[in-house]
Amino acid sequence: MKSLNYFLIVLTLLSLSLSAAAQNFYYGLEGGVNFANVNLESANGTDQLTSPQTGFVFGGVFGYPISHSFSLELEALYIQKGGMQMANSQNPNIEIRMSVLEVPLFAKVSFGNTIRPYIKAGPAIGIILNSDAETEYGGAVAGQSLQTYKADMQNVLKRIDFGLSFGTGISFAVGNTYLFIESRYTLGLTDLYKGGELQWISGDESFTVEGNPSAAMYNKGIQVIIGITLPQ
């Protein structure tokens, strides 16, 4: 909840500053789902099998039209990221979850007038607000009942994530506003994993795993977003 409050404060300040800066800016709200996943590499460079996790994304968009067909868009997003590391001979399934404040800057090319398909691309910077992992350990092999263990991943991950986003969508004029729907792909360029001790806790029980800094983890995801902008 604290990380969400920080995001809302940043979004409000950014909205006020951009609204005051220029009258020809357009602005709006957007939200949707993120089909998130991670690329994981072991210390010896072997790719780990992963499965996507579904999260949500919402935030604000602020645009500046350079011409009728070309504009720049700055967004401030609260987005849930992560993925599932599938079980192997050394580890059970491990679910990784992150809450991220992400700020992408897009170059956007639009076509048409009332109905406007568009494409967009640009860099993105993300600040990881919090991150955790969850797994189930035990059973007959371990000689104990199956238990759920959780771990705070903040001390083994970097806080800043750089990436690239590519999207396509379509907007519809409704009076003085535009409704839009788009899909985009975001690829993380930063190896987030820095290694170190990770403490797994289940009630009064805990154990610690030492992570190898030679391992690697990168974010990726596909977002489906709907929103509204005004004026334009």
Overall description:
This protein has 232 residues and is mainly beta. It has a single domain (2-134, 156-196, 217-230), classed as Beta Barrel (Porin). The protein contains 1 helix and 12 strands. The chain has one helix at 2-21, and strands at 26-41, 50-51, 53-65, 70-85, 94-110, 115-139, 144-152, 160-174, 177-188, 196-202, 205-211, 216-230. The strands form 2 sheets. The chain has an 8-stranded antiparallel β-barrel with strand order 1-3-4-5-6-8-9-12. Strands 10-11 form a two-stranded antiparallel ribbon. A hairpin with a 2-residue loop joins β10 (196-202) and β11 (205-211). The mean pLDDT is 87.
Number of β-strand runs: 12
Instruction: Report the sheet with the most strands, covering strand number, pairing sense and barrel closure.
Output: 8 strands, antiparallel, barrel
Q: Provide the helix percentage.
A: under 10%
Low-pLDDT stretches are none
Helix-and-strand structural type:
mainly beta
The CATH class, by name, is Mainly Beta
DSSP strand content: over 45%
Number of helices: 1
